[in-house]
Amino acid sequence: MAKTNIVAKTGNEAMADAMRQINPDVVAAYPITPATEIVQIFSGYVADGLVKTEFVPVESEHSAMSACIGASAAGGRAMTGTSSQGLALMAEMLYVASGLRLPIVLADVNRALSSPINIHCDHSDTMMLKESGWIQIFSENAQEGYDNMIQAVRIAEKARLPVIVTTDGFIISHGMERIEILSDEDVKNFVGEYKPEQYLLNSAAPITIGALDLPDYYFEHRRQAAEAMKEAKSIILDISKEYGQKFGRSYGLFEEYKLSDAELVIVAMGSTAGTTKVVVDELRASGVKAGLLKPRVFRPFPKDEIASALKGAKAIAVLDRSDSMNGNEGPVCLEVKAALYDKGLAKPVVDYIFGLGGREIRLQDVEMVYNDLASMLKGKTFDKVNYMGVRE
Amino acid sequence: MMANLKELAKQKELFTGGHRACAGCGTVMIARQVLMASGPDTVVVSATGCLEVVSTIFPFTAWNVPFLHSAFENSGATVSGVEALYKSWVRQGKINKKINFIAFGGDGGTYDIGLQSLSGAMERGHNILYVCYNNEAYMNTGVQRSGATPKGADTSTAPVGKVKKGKEQYRKDLTAIMVAHGIPYAAQSIAGNWRDLTSKVEKALAIEGPKFINVFQPCRLGWAYPPELTCEMGRLAADTCTWPLYEVVNGQYKITYKPKEKKPIAEWMKLQGRFRHLLKPENKALLDELQNKTDKNWEALLKKEAAI
Ligand SMILES: Cc1ncc(C[n+]2csc(CCOP(=O)(O)OP(=O)(O)O)c2C)c(N)n1
């Protein structure tokens, strides 16, 4: 088994370290809490000559993504990190990156969107861009953030789609954890060399990137990107498996925690999944068949696999750390319900919008959700969407 | 180093015919001449706008050099990323030939929405040349006013009406703003004087660091004049001193063309639809004001040159 180094690091430190080991050609970024530290630490590595990276301290996130697009189209590995308003400002360019099929990797430290302005965690920034054609991988803790970041490089390049890796703002980004860091050599070998087929710096074979598509071609190009997103699923699985074989930490499209015989199931992403695991353990100790499904890959959404994994559940609660404000469920719940419907699984599913703007979610809150599920089975009815932890 | 027409004509076309520009378009003339001066080892980035739209209709392209378009407001930032990769690769020993990095943007994508990303790129000192093809309005969307539109011009969002006489503000002096960034080379040139433009591009590309050339680009559609007059229209802009040709090398001004006889701006305006109203007797005061402003600008420029 590969040599690992056990250290205490915050999520941001772990992400910066992953970036150092990946050693991308170009990093372009603009500061925003709580993501700032990632590139701040990274720029220290640049200053110390520890990486070959050209660091471009741009004047906005829009320009950060634009510069990443330039660097990636030119033939290099390009990365950035941001959060909330920064991701929103990048939105236009995120669509350009995926449309041009550029394998850019972005660390998004999840934070609420304005307004009101708030710097704390929820998932509304990433969710806003769930239709942007970026692969989205969520992390439960700093270890996963680190591991996901390293895998993201390979995933992006194989799928020819850009990848967002998220960590929860402050909860993961600023919380100190025990994590296992791989050796520089192992990461270098795992990510390998990037060899683009066609790229701008190859002036001997000039290509035009970003041409105008009229009605005669646009649809075909979007269709190809959609197909690439579909195919990304198996690419993510292959690369995750390889990572597991080499380094001992295995990942799939989602994690099943005591799910196989579970009757009361919570679906939760990010750090909340960790909190939920503690409650599942407690409930299991008292004989309650509780379980957790933790989506890791939100885009592409592994609907068939998730529906199959939920087959045995008697009642399901989805925890949504963002609100779609659509007069309907939150984004994760909608996906889960659609997945169940397509498999003909008409199960009781209830949505809990929680934790907006960094509102804490406690063990008791999760326990209450399991209690709700239990009483649901006994015939009690619930609203389709519930707001948990808000003063109303 | 000065460009020689015979030599230029012998080169492989780096910007080819067959694009979809309007007859008499100054933009494509500028792109072709800029590439003649830069040679094939050039990567071009373009903002959204007429140039990109007419030259890259999939599956065709008019570019025989690597070309990237990503959006409207970010030519400066996009080319920064391309150049950053080049620097990284030079450091890694992955590339050693010299490559020129040239970004194009229209006046809308440069003076207005793209100013932030352009300014950022200039401030960070990337080794790039930014060329603004300045047709003094948003032409791709149908002649709306921009920050480069001159006072008094008739545009679709600052039209001449019963109480208003076209655009009410003077255009912003973007070349001066670029000079204020302290970049090693900034210049104004014109479609219609190939020697001036190609020499300036050659000169700019020989200098390390961020460079800016603001190229005046008559637009036959937006300005409403016959297509065969594009070059003449450019030269008249220089002869009337409404668009002086000069360069600023490390802060030092040099006027590269001084008309033997400075013509009144009305001579240039009367050929264009967008100024038609200014030539009516009732608008004489405005025309005089514009002439006065042009004279003052020209004198100020002469003083800047003399100040060396
Ligand atoms: C689009 C976006 N990017 C980044 C931020 C994060 N941000 C908030 S304040 C700030 C720095 C402000 O610096 P400055 O304008 O110099 O004012 P100062 O804080 O020094 O008073 C940043 C980067 C944001 N709110 N929105």
Give a structural overview:
The complex is a heterodimer of chains A (392) and B (308). Chain A is of the alpha/beta class and 392 residues long. Chain A is built from 12 helices and 16 strands. A 7-stranded mixed β-sheet of chain A has the order 3-2-4-5-7-6-13, with helices on both faces. The longest helix of chain A is centred in the middle third of the chain and has 30 residues, at 218-247. Chain A is globular, with a radius of gyration of 21 Å. With 308 residues, chain B is of the alpha/beta class. Chain B has helices at 5-10, 26-38, 50-55, 75-92, 107-112, 115-124, 174-179, 194-205, 220-223, 230-239, 265-269, 284-306; strands spanning 42-46, 67-69, 100-106, 129-134, 185-190, 211-216, 246-249, 252-255. In chain B, helix 2 (26-38) crosses helix 8 and helix 4 (75-92) packs parallel to helix 6 (115-124). The chains are: A alpha/beta (392), B alpha/beta (308). Chains A and B meet through strand 3, helix 3, helix 4 and strand 9 of A and strand 1, strand 2, helix 4 and helix 6 of B. Strand 9 of chain A pairs parallel with strand 2 of chain B, so a sheet runs across the interface.
